[in-house]
């Protein structure tokens, strides 16, 4: 499933903040899924809206 464009900056920033991974290194970023999700959630809700955020 494609990631909505409204969430991309949030996810990029979360990956940079809580992992040693580059945004395009999906295998690395997936190892930190929980940390990335926690770090990105508020931003994604703010950028995409609650309804869209919970459907991701």
UniProtKB/TrEMBL annotation:
What are the UniProt keywords, alphabetically?
Disulfide bond, Glycoprotein, GPI-anchor, Heme, Iron, Lipoprotein, Membrane, Metal-binding, Secreted, Signal
The entry's cellular-component GO terms read: extracellular region; side of membrane
- Coiled coil spans: none
Would I find Signal among this entry's keywords? yes
Name of a matching Pfam family: CFEM
| S-S pairs | 21-28
Q: Which PROSITE patterns match?
A: CFEM
Q: How does it sit in the membrane?
A: Lipid-anchor; GPI-anchor
Tell me which family the UniProt entry assigns to this protein. Belongs to the RBT5 family.
Which protein are we looking at? CFEM domain-containing protein
The species this protein was found in: Hypocrea atroviridis (strain ATCC 20476 / IMI 206040)
Q: What is the lineage of its organism?
A: Eukaryota, Fungi, Dikarya, Ascomycota, Pezizomycotina
């Amino acid at each position: 499933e494609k990631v909505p464009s409204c969430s991309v900056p949030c996810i990029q920033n979360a990956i940079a903040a809580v992992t040693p991974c580059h945004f395009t290194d999906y295998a690395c970023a997936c190892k930190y899924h929980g940390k990335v999700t926690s770090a990105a959630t508020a931003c994604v809700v703010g950028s995409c809206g609650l309804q869209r955020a919970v459907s991701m």
